[in-house]
Design brief:
Blueprint: E1 7-11, H1 16-19, H2 22-32, E2 35-43, E3 48-50, E4 57-59, H3 63-81, E5 90-96, H4 98-108, E6 113-118, H5 123-129, H6 132-139, E7 144-148
Parallel strand pairs: 1-2, 1-6, 2-5, 6-7
Antiparallel strand pairs: 3-4
């Protein structure tokens, strides 16, 4: 049996932990001459509302501003971390629930491998917060390589 990866997905939230998986994605893309896709999902839950009723206002910048900032960050990220691949890496931005959008993206783009970091939180924090990585591992149709990041808060 020969294992081949043609399309590799690296989802990121730009956290230090998430970025620790980037070298793995780059090296695998280089080794397999695969197309590398980097994906950032703006979590639809980012927008919290202050108060209730017709006078309520969103707290934080408008979604368009956040998406533009994400586009700029992705292009900067691409230039700094994804330039060392044989094929030009592709960057993508989306909005939604991160785990669901990652899975949908993988399906739509025929991704062969997802490479992402895991925060390594303790059991209590995991039960309280859930884990995007765990949900992707459980629900993705393709293999998922998880890279355990060094999370300073886990010490």
């Amino acid at each position: 049996m020969s294992i081949r990866f043609s399309n590799i997905l690296f989802p990121t939230d730009f956290s230090d932990v998430s970025m620790q998986a980037a070298p793995y994605a780059v090296e695998l893309a280089r080794t397999f001459d695969a197309q590398l896709h980097a994906l950032y999902i703006l979590d639809e839950a980012y927008q919290y509302w202050s108060g209730m009723g017709p006078e309520s206002i969103p707290v934080g910048p408008p979604p368009e501003e956040l998406l533009e900032l994400a586009r700029e960050r992705m292009l900067d990220f691409k230039a700094k971390f994804l330039s060392d691949v044989k094929r030009e890496a592709l960057v993508h931005i989306g909005v939604g629930r991160p785990f669901a959008e990652i899975i949908a993206f993988a399906r739509e783009h025929e991704i062969d491998l997802i490479v992402m970091a895991t925060h390594g939180r303790g059991a209590f924090a995991h039960a309280l917060l859930g884990s995007t990585t765990e949900k992707v591992v459980r629900k993705a149709e393709c293999p998922v390589l998880t890279v355990r990041g060094k999370d300073e808060s886990a010490d």
